[in-house]
Amino acid sequence: KLQLPVHSEILDVGAGTGVLSASLQTHGFTNIDALDSDLSALSQLNALRLYRNLICRGLTGLNSTGLREDTYDVIVTSCGISSHTINPTNITELLRILKPGGHLFFTMYSTS
Q: What SS3 class is residue 92?
């Protein structure tokens, strides 16, 4: 069982409806930022107060997020990585902003 400190710096990539942040908060995590390219989705998330920071950027290549290197302890995405949303080739940007020894968790949506 992976035991992460509740003060971990977390980035939710492709935050969408915020369901992942809501779930993490039930386990005591509060340092959660959202990265999403959909401004209207981020506006709705702002009203829900599920995130510390809302970052409106796309994940489109190295340095595309505008975030500093080694920023997050944990990066999560739920069905955010696919050929139709975040291209798997852009994982290098996620690794760049992940702290050494950090954790990258993602699920992928499949129609089969």
A: helix
Structure tokens at 58: 């796309």
CA–CA dist 45, 70 (Å, integer): 25
pTM of the model: 0.89
Instruction: Locate 39 and state its tokens.
Output: 């401004």
CA distance 108 to 87: 11
Q: Is residue 63 within 8 Å of residue 93, measured between CB atoms?
A: yes
Q: What is the pLDDT of residues 9-68, one digit of tens each?
A: 999 998 988 999 999 999 999 999 999 989 999 999 999 999 999 999 988 889 999 999
Task: Kindly report the backbone phi and psi dihedral angles of residue 45, in degrees, each rounded to the nearest multiple of 5, phi listed first.
Answer: -65, -35
